[in-house]
Design brief:
Blueprint lengths: L2 H22 L13 H10 L17 H13 L25
């Protein structure tokens, strides 16, 4: 290898090193990642009617235990078997045909 080719390689290597070093000092594109989600938190806070509702010691409701148990049972049973689907095409196609006009 000649001396001229070695100088060209070292100059390119130097420029490559300088370029990569300068690129390493560039601004991080993820610098504002700590602010990510801030707009969602502000929107939720703005839409909350009473943010301290869970901190208050409210008196128990004035409903008796039997009615409360019935309401809870109805709620839990609502997740059971769903009702059978209704076939829309069979509505009105039953045995009676209505008035014949005679």
């Amino acid at each position: 290898m000649s001396i001229m080719n070695t100088c060209k390689v070292s100059h390119w290597g130097t420029w490559l090193l300088v370029t990569l070093s300068a690129a390493g000092c560039a601004q991080n594109p993820y610098a504002d990642a700590s602010q990510s989600g801030q707009s969602v938190r502000q929107a939720v806070k703005a839409q909350t009617l009473n943010p301290d509702a869970g901190q208050k010691n409210l008196p128990p409701p004035d409903t008796d235990g039997v009615a409360m148990k019935s309401a809870v049972d109805l709620y839990q049973n609502s997740f059971g078997k769903p009702p059978a689907p209704v076939n829309v095409l069979s509505i009105g196609l039953g045995g009676s045909s209505g008035s014949t006009g005679r």
